[in-house]
Amino acid sequence: MNAYDSGLGKNAANYAPLTPLDFYERAARVYPDHPAVVHGARRFTWKQVRDRGHRLASALAARGIGHGDTVSVLLLNTPEMVEAHFGVPLCGAVLNAMNTRLDARTVAYILEHAQARALIVDRELAPVAAEALKMLGRELLVIDVDDPEYTGAGERIGEVEYEAFLAGGDPAQSFDFPRDEWDAIALNYTSGTTGRPKGVVYHHRGACLNALNNSLLWDLPRHVVYLWTLPMFHCNGWCFAWAVAERAGVNVCLRRVEAQKIFELIRAEQVTHYCGAPIVHSLLVDAPAEMKRGIDHKVYAAVGGAAPPQAVIEGFEAMGFDITHAYGLTETYGPATWCIKHADWAEKPPAERARLNARQGLPSVLEKGLSVRDPETLQEVPADGTTMGEVMVRGNVTMKGYLKNPEATAAAFRGGWFHTGDLGVMEPDGYVKIKDRSKDVIISGGENISSLDLEDVLYRHPAVLAAAVVAKPDDKWGEVPAAFIELRPGVPVPGVKELTAYCRERLPRFAVPRHFEFGALPRTATGKIQKFELRQRLKSQSAIDV
Ligand code: ADP
């Protein structure tokens, strides 16, 4: 043993587990009176949020909930959801924020799989929760959230209401969790675009580091005013639930994504930052000009969760908002890469600028590696912008693994890389560009067709509001591209012939869709288009073939 390794061990004076829970303690200490949460008439300072979080932890602990237990929540983006991100892990438990659009059967499946000890539920979601609890067939502590901002239907179903529950907790109680930074902090089920939901386990260390990544890579200012357009159940709001505390910022809550309300809040609260899937951004770009009036300050938007069509990025520039692109998965705590902008991009023509910004980008500062590799041999592909491989990441911001699923965990980490299942290329400047999910790529007559490239072309057609392309089995070609299109209201409807001609001008012949369908596209709660449903539809519906 060399001198540097002997007698120089870790102890409480020189080592503490990394955790994002420290962020809210610090915000409360340094900025006790600074606004932390805004929700309609309800406003809380950082001291109040800290005390409410501690009360929650204390009340849960009094019910015997602690280290290694799961607390599930079915909550919208309300103050309680912010508090749960601190209070639940503080008592040693793991926060399982469920997707609010799940059906009762899936909720029951998750409660069972996660062995939830408690469920905190918003009154709006109580009917689904009640049905799920019936299916579950066992007792657990149910706490109702009755948000004064919500006036719709839904009965309380729990044994105790959230405010009464908090009143029973002691804000002065101290906790010593996490004991290890590798302890679980959150359990997030994949949204199921690729099959049965898997329980992705986050540790305190990763949550802390990805929150810091967000602050660093997006240059979040101190006291950022952050609007919750992104569901907090999605990767803990891409870890922004913790990042906003680190910046002692303001969480501007939002129960529902509606353009009018979003612009009102941006104006009234002087929102500086928000995130969302491309659909959220398109909604804002397409909103009438009067809604956008009176916004004179700079607004920064981050887009991710699905590939943003270049057209959305161009639309944003026109609106005067600054848009940054991020990419990741539930397994990477949300954003694993950010498309960092370079000063000289500003001088490029708009279409080229949009192309550069639509790339998924570079690994975040605290992630170790990002690579595009052959999924079988793990051989790295050349950085030539054309050789496809599977996008892989490794390092500090990758999940602990899948809960109670060692096979899936081992497969995901094969060869010491996390396999994202996304296919992409490495461009010469080290930026990654995703071309498809491995199962979404279309192979027609031996040619690989990227559905994302094809969708980008369709999105540029003035009548196209949204487009998704999937493979359709074909006797002659093996597969042919089939395009599903949501039309923009108020624009002349193009015929199949016109769209085909439009694609022919812009794409190689083999990549032109042979099949078009028009209508609303099926989406997940986070705005992702459910391609598997489109493939189902292809099987069961007759459509127009060209
Ligand atoms: P699920 O896998 O159940 O859809 P995730 O939210 O983990 O749930 O989805 C991650 C996937 O979303 C990625 O593997 C990728 O296919 C897609 N994705 C996320 N962000 C982007 C992006 N910026 N560009 C392209 N695809 C993205």
Write up what this structure looks like.
With about 550 residues, the chain is an alpha/beta fold. The protein folds into three domains: about 160 residues, 3-Layer(aba) Sandwich (Rossmann fold); about 180 residues, Rossmann fold; about 100 residues, GMP Synthetase, Chain A, domain 3 (2-Layer Sandwich). The chain contains 18 helices and 27 strands. The strands form six sheets. The protein has a nine-stranded mixed beta sheet with strand order 2-1-11-10-12-13-14-15-16, sandwiched between helices. Strand 5, helix 5 and strand 6 form a beta-alpha-beta unit. It is globular. The mean pLDDT is about 95.
CATH homologous superfamily name of the largest domain?
ANL, N-terminal domain
Please tally the β strands and state the result: 27
Query: What's the tally of helices?
Result: 18
Assign an overall shape. globular
Alpha carbon gap, first and last residue: 73 Å
Name the hetero compounds present: adenosine-5'-diphosphate
Rounded to the nearest angstrom, the radius of gyration is 24 Å
Which residues form runs of ≥5 with pLDDT under 50? none
CATH class identity of the largest domain: Alpha Beta
Please state the structural category: alpha/beta
CATH architecture of the largest domain: 3-Layer(aba) Sandwich
**What's the number of domains?**
3
Sheet bearing the most strands, described? 9 strands, mixed
CATH topology of the largest domain: Rossmann fold
Mean pLDDT across the residues is 93
Report the portion of residues in β strands: 15-25%
Strand order of the largest sheet: 2-1-11-10-12-13-14-15-16
As a percent range, the share of helical residues equals: 25-40%
